[in-house]
Design a protein that fits this description.
The structure is a homodimer.
Chain A (H helix, E strand, L loop, with lengths): L3 H26 L5 H4 L1 H6 L21 H5 L4 H7 L2 H8 L1 H26 L1 H7 L2 H8 L6 H4 L12 H36 L8 E5 L9 H12 L4 E8 L2 H27 L4 E3 L9 E3 H25 L4 E9 L2 H9 L10 E4 L15 H21 L1 H11 L1 H7 L4 H4 L2 H21 L1 H12 L4 H38 L5 H12 L1 H21 L1 H13 L4 H7 L7 H21 L4 H21 L12 H25 L6 H4 L1 H17 L1 H4 L3 H14 L5 H5 L6 H7 L1 H15 L8 H6 L4 H4 L16
Antiparallel strand pairs in A: 1-5, 1-6, 2-5, 3-4
Helix pairs in contact in A: 1-20, 1-24, 5-28, 6-7, 7-11, 7-27, 7-28, 11-27, 11-29, 11-31, 13-14, 15-33, 16-21, 16-22, 17-20, 17-22, 20-24, 21-22, 22-23, 22-27, 23-29, 24-28, 27-29, 29-31
Chain lengths: 775, 775
């Protein structure tokens, strides 16, 4: 077990790491050459243009020579705090604003508690002396942190009444904050939706599982069905094409385009024709002129793309059995989305259309049965992943348990016995090992969600977040508590009566506090500091900048900041709520670490949302019910754990008092669900009628059909349609960037819609093609 | 433990009881005096009139003198079987027809199994010899039945593969039958709904939780809200009055009316003015003329009722915040029922209107929050009831365990040791004790459901059925298995390692087969025979007939057959599915008893539905999803129990093969839910549009407003409105029944709507007042 010195060493390491990251950030941020990395959102919104043009000096284009700015390197913090919530909503969307509120919620819940704990809980816990006795008896190796926790109280002590009252107080306080926040978020959401301009998704419904009738095309079926069943309000519909092959071609084309750009740039610099080899990876096969070679390949691919596009348009088989149906009023769309259409409930399924950016086109054709089967398969896989991923983690952690390591590798003993190394290993390794394991996971889980067949990016992110949360709960939280104990005490578990097991678990939870403190410091302090540095994006951007960027527009495309990644950040965040709530009563010394995380992460993400991340879609805070729900689960878990601890502490007269608490919490949850969740899932007719009437009064001659005509056009069409209008924009941007473009080359025509650096995202968010950062 | 002889004795007793009941029924049924009891449905439908008028003989009016009919006393069976399903639907409604299908489903599931078991399972089980060994070792007292069960197979035997394959076969077969039945019932339901005539509930929506605005009345609010949000389809609405006080007065009046009738009849017979006393129960206080006294009281009450009625109509506070809103098309109603209306999801809640007969008026005013709290309170109460009702049952059962009884009351030993008494006690008492406990329960559970606040009778019955099922599952099934064992082996449970517990439970399930066989015979054989006899109804009817019936109409009212009582019969029925499925693999000897029950009960209930019960409402088989769901649960329970048994049997190589089965069953359930349940919960727009169009084509000038005008008028109004039209009907019936009525008395005017014998049901189904058996 780690001692207070171990924690101090770990804290020092992590704080120094965080400071190093922050300093590096402060220096890198003000270099003009990195400006696009740290202010990408402003470039995308068009409020910031290349700073290189402004500075006359050649060096000044790349390095910041104004030394005053180095002295004010921390001014990103007041800058980040200056923007109001309304401005953030306008600048980065409601999702981002609601996301930031989660951190504030964390501070609100745990803030008062961090003040209360030293006043009430710690004196009470210190007044016990069980840990001292145990340490003397050498029964369990323990430390100073444990003597501040509930384990220090003697069995059956009257002092447990303090913990029980505080457990009630904590639950009431948490629920109060949650209720307040839920009603606030619901209000903001409704207000946001009501004050929004006219948006296509308000008039549209996504219909899936369209049955195929041999005599009719999908398009005819859809038109006939909705003309029949929504005769008064049906306006038009847009079919969906299966463009997966086209997007593969585009991807391949863009990979080759990057090589072409690279060789052209090389040629410009060296003025010598570059050569390459035709074979594998350009290192074997016939030697050819690189520029001509890639131009040929790209030409071929583009021809294929044109014919593929024509095939898609002509072949009725490339129309998938789903469509976006638009209505002449919000009322009509709202009605269609909420009702059952067909006698066969597995056909003609209607639901709200996601906003065009949010559609995940690849999954629209998946039928209900297939969707169900896929969910089952993925559930099994997630179960396996969640429960068997534990094994490698527990091995690493048992190695980091130095007593175990010494046994496994006795030759390491002299090294391990060095005090500093020992502290380092015990304080740093367990958290780091876990973090590495977690790094590749979100991608795998996102792939699983995509396979399941959800039809919008927001839903995909929410579902992935759920899987990730289960994973974190079992592996990071339970795994750290139980597996560690199991490896230590497996032998005694088997050979002792079953009543001993809850006692051991109850004891191990407070004892794991030190582990979670180091985890919070590694993941929550140093990790968040590395978030603001954006080292990976920086390297990729500068690499592209060096080799393939030729025009200013290429540079724009080289920096795609991505979105905030709710599927990854939400579960991580929710784990801190869990840790805070569990240890708020058991070992309140952990709370300051959680508070520092919430405050620091709030600052960092506020900065990132304002300056870096680009919103992929707007779900108007649709993820809030999940956040609420999981904080409630955390609260329930904390209550059950406390019950477990108390029951092992033989507090027989006080424990039953705690039993109603989980039930009351569940009741509160059910009430909130009934009261607020419909605001996130449904669109009340009252609201629809109001907005329809307002619009009708203000714009009586509105041509809604024209407004909705191309709303849900498949990206494949948009990429061709936009050519003309985009061309003029390109010309305009050329006049500013003074770079020769090739307006007439066929490559350009297509590339407009799918710039090379975007292609990586093509499969994920093809819709971003026409919402990309061009303007 | 009961031996085969005990079972034989029990079987003999129960078969004799059943035959006695059947003989009594056969004789009583053909007596003209009882005709109304055994053919009430025909009187209600108007196809049968009083037989007394036909027979000239005075004795013949009361006793059947035609001896031929005594010889053909079993002809109710072919009569019951003659009617086709379509005729039953027409005669007794779809609910009744679907209810009968459950018995057929039972026969379909267990029929092939009863043939398969003697061929495969019993030889396999007999080939083991563990029971013989155990009996020799006196470790557990067992019997011949057990040697036919799975307990007879040695641990780790390869013979368990037979059981596992058969478990798969049983599950597949059951699911196949369930799927087939679900799709059939869904089809029948949709067909029934489509072929129905125009019905008011198709155009109506029940809106609850209407917010009260001080400046508007409820009626104005409703009109304004729906005119605003469903402008194209809103037609009208009907407010609901709080008439609870009125119904109390009517109840009181009718109680006194019964006394008045009694004394008037007495006066007619004896020609002497009867006297009564004014005080408590007519046995103390001042002596008065009974007829005058009751006439006075009734006069007073009727004056009060008139003024109460006026108060209700005038006072806006007597309008409750709920209303029936009617639309100009099925489409409009369907849309309104399926969508969220208000921004605040706890207000303006809309749902399908139950058909007028089905409305439970008393609960319409309960708000959402109150409804939620009531459900919580009742959940806790049901939990307590389910889990602590066990205690008295287990005491009775442990008494019936004769070894225990001898210890408690050693003086009974000589009596108990008589072989016949012993067999009787062991075979009969445990089942009977349980049955008595269960007798009062449905009423309590129905009261609980009413308190919860459901707004229709059909929903009340379904909810009560659910509660009752939980009760049966825990107390009858688990209670009989576990409690019995616990009382026997409590001591050893505490003092043995935990791995022993599942073994003991696994062993006790096959051993309880004999108990359940006697239970089936008492409850399922003799119980069903007593159902056809209707002894309670017979006595009540003849009692009324003797003392208070004056006119033929009074006689009609004296026999209210009631409905089939789904809340009571469904869970009972489902218990047999559970028993059949659990023991189909474990102890297949139990199956023939289950089969006999299903076949016999099918005959009896077919007869009762055709001849006796009157349908209270038509839910078009809305209870089927529950039936399906609970059979699936039974299947799951049976699979888990088999898993438990096998794991204790050390069949380590074969048990894992069984593990996927529960998951596959759950998958099947989820699929069925998705595929069929919407047909029972929603009304697809496609269907609505079709019917609207058909109706529009056939009746272009239909005045829908007039058709819907009084559809959901509160019974209190109907009782006054009907007076004139009913008056004429009464005159007509007088000419047939040759009885002097009092057409002008104020009593009659009110009584028309709430005849005395119906008043008992007033609180339960006030709507039956205008659907009562008058025509």
């Amino acid at each position: 077990m780690a001692t207070v010195e171990d924690i101090a060493v770990s804290a020092a390491i992590n704080i120094l790491t965080a400071i190093a990251f922050l300093l590096a950030f402060a220096v890198l941020r003000i270099q003009p050459v990195n400006d696009r990395v740290y202010h990408s959102k402003w470039y995308i919104s068009g409020d910031r243009r290349s700073t290189r043009a402004r500075s006359g000096n050649v060096v000044g284009k790349f390095v910041n020579l104004n030394f005053w700015t180095y002295l004010t390197f921390l001014n990103w913090i007041p800058q980040a705090l200056r923007m109001s919530q309304a401005e953030i909503i306008k600048h980065a969307g409601l999702d981002s604003a609601v996301y930031l509120r989660i951190y504030i919620l964390g501070l609100k819940i745990f803030g008062p508690w961090t003040i209360l704990a030293p006043l009430i809980l710690i004196p009470v816990n210190l007044s016990g002396n069980i840990i001292r006795n145990l340490t003397n008896a050498k029964e369990i190796i323990s430390n100073e942190i444990d003597s501040l926790s509930i384990s220090n109280i003697e069995d059956g002590s009257q002092r447990f009444w303090v913990h029980i009252s505080l457990a009630y107080l904590l639950s009431v306080w948490t629920c109060l904050m949650l209720y307040h926040e839920y009603s606030k978020v619901a209000f903001i959401r409704l207000h946001f939706l009501a004050s929004q301009d006219r948006r296509v998704e308000q008039f549209s419904v996504l219909v899936t599982n369209v049955p195929s009738i041999s005599s009719h095309s999908i398009s005819e079926s859809v038109e006939h069905f909705f003309k029949m069943n929504h005769s008064d309000h049906y306006l038009s519909h847009q079919v969906v094409y299966n463009a997966n092959k086209f997007s593969k071609l585009a991807k391949k084309r863009d990979r080759h385009q990057n090589w072409l750009d690279y060789y052209e740039r090389k040629f410009e610099k060296t003025n010598r024709r570059p050569y390459t080899q035709k074979g594998f990876l350009g290192i074997c096969g016939k030697r050819v002129d690189a520029i001509d070679y890639y131009k040929d390949i790209i030409g071929d691919l583009e021809k294929k793309m044109v014919s593929e596009r024509q095939r898609i348009l002509k072949d009725s088989k490339s129309i998938i059995p789903a469509a976006f149906v638009t209505f002449d009023s919000r009322w009509g769309a709202s009605v269609c989305a909420q009702t059952q259409q067909s006698k066969n409930p597995t056909r003609w399924l209607t639901d709200w259309a996601p906003e065009p950016r949010d559609v995940y086109w690849e999954n629209l054709s998946i039928s209900l049965v297939s969707h169900g089967l896929r969910r089952v398969v993925i559930s099994v896989l997630v179960f396996l992943l969640v429960f068997f991923y534990m094994i490698p983690i527990s091995i690493v952690q048992s190695l980091a348990n130095l007593e175990g390591l010494e046994k496994v590798a006795p030759f390491l003993q002299p090294v391990i016995d060095l005090k500093f190394i020992k502290s380092f290993l015990q304080g740093f390794i367990p958290g780091l090992a876990l973090k590495i394991f977690l790094f590749i996971l979100p991608t795998v889980l996102m792939w699983m969600s995509k396979f399941e067949g959800y039809t919008s990016l927001s839903l995909l992110e929410r579902r992935t977040a759920r899987k990730y949360y289960y994973f974190m709960l079992v592996n990071v939280f339970l795994g750290s508590i139980v597996t560690g104990t199991v490896l230590e005490q497996l032998y005694s578990f088997i050979h002792q009566p079953p009543t001993q097991i809850p006692k051991t678990i109850g004891l191990s939870i407070p004892m794991k506090a030190t582990f979670f403190i180091t985890y919070i410091m590694v993941d929550g302090w140093a990790g968040i500091a590395s978030e603001i540095l954006r080292l990976r994006s920086l390297i990729i951007y500068q690499f592209k900048n060096m080799f393939i960027v030729k025009t200013e527009r290429d540079r724009e495309n080289a920096m795609h900041p991505g979105s905030i990644g709710l599927h990854e950040t939400l579960p991580t965040l929710q784990l801190y709520f869990l840790l805070g709530l569990v240890y708020a009563i058991v070992t309140p010394v952990l709370l300051p670490f959680v508070i520092v995380f919430f405050a620091f992460a709030y600052l960092v993400y506020r900065h990132q949302i304002i300056n870096v991340y680009d919103q992929e879609y707007e779900s108007a805070g649709a993820f809030w019910p999940h956040v609420h729900c999981r904080i409630i689960y955390s609260l329930l878990i904390s209550q059950l754990i406390l019950l477990g601890i108390l029951s092992t502490k033989k507090a027989a007269n006080s424990t039953p008092v705690l039993t109603p608490l989980p039930f009351l919490t569940l009741l509160f949850h059910m009430y909130c669900k009934k009261r607020f969740e419909p605001a996130f899932r449904k669109y009340p007719l009252e609201e629809a009628v109001e907005k329809d009437a307002m619009e009708h009064a203000s714009e009586p001659n509105l041509n809604l059909r024209a407004f909705l005509a191309d709303a849900y056009l498949h990206p494949i069409f948009r990429s061709f349609q936009d050519v003309e209008s985009a061309e003029t924009r390109v010309d305009k941007s050329q006049s500013e960037s003074h770079v020769v473009a090739l307006p007439s080359s066929p490559r350009h025509e297509l590339n407009l819609a799918s710039p090379p650096q975007h292609v990586y995202h093509y499969e994920m968010e093809p819709s971003s093609l026409y919402y990309n950062p061009y303007h």
